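Input chain follows. Return structure tokens only.
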Amino acid sequence: MNAAPSRLSHRTITQIGRYEAVDLHGIDKDLALTLYSQMLRLRRTEEALHREYHPAEEMRCPIHFCIGQEAVPAALSALVRPDDFMFSHHRSHGYYFAKGAPMRELFAEIYGRETGANGGKAGSQDISHSGSHFYSGAILAGAVSIAVGAAFGFQHAKTRQISISGFGEGATDEGAFWEAMNYSGKKRLPILFVIENNRYATFSDQLKRQAEDNIVERVTPFGVRATQIFGNDVALAWRTLHTEISRLREGDGPVLVEAYTYRWNSHVGPEDDSANAYRSGDEIAFWKTNCPIALFENKLRLQHWLNDDEKDAIEQEIAGEIAANFQFAKDSAFPTDTDWHRMTYEDASPLADALLGTAAGGNFDHYQADAKLGPY
């Protein structure tokens, strides 16, 4: 049985050939079909957007697709609660999807329409959906820092909520990442850090940027529990994340899960970036051979939990959803005016807004009393 090596790295992982260690332990048929459907839904959504981007030229922003990286978002989608907060980097669609944010509003946002998740003003890299407690941003490691703040708030309020930060291994090049490890470990914060390690930061190999592929070993001295997994095994991802999220809710945090996976597409957009010759054909072939959807589908068929008719029904349902999402986006109007005050200030945070509005010399004590928020 070709399982991933006990100590993963991008130097060793391609040596496993075809991965054959998918295990349904702890997963019943209903959950298995949910995980499969979620992966397929995300894949078909990304493929449809990828096809439509050109030549129509109607999408109003760059898009960082996550084709090939569907397993972790699918696993998270079955584990997060509505009141948890999730933060993502620029490759945002999988995490937006995992948090259950409305997909038709993602489509509309990409098309720059006022019905989009952010009124057509944020685009793909910075898309957020406050009603779903999902936030993304293009600043490298920005999602890590903000997620730590949210986790601190949950700990202070003594809730069972958790904060989830999803990002790539490139974020670990930033000092903010290591500050987050230090602070969250010291404070024992209820935060889950998920690294989808797809090897490349734009075109730069991790091992050309870092001396060793050993992020898990480097974070543990900060008091952060950490584990590596083969990130294209959705069953393994679900079991690992289920265990770690359960521990977080009981106060046993923080934790980092590093999932080794791979994006099939270019760094950004539907254009082919292979002219940069930064990855080999053999490497791409290995990861396509180990497509997370195909690996899991094969297991479900062997278990007699999925057949052709059932798969066709899932595909038809997804195709209908995607067509409706495109129609919603294209039928929606472009923004007609911009309320810059509402985009800058929030009535629910009077102290912060007062300080922001008088940064040139406001009186902090005055605004603290005015906001009736108690001592700082």
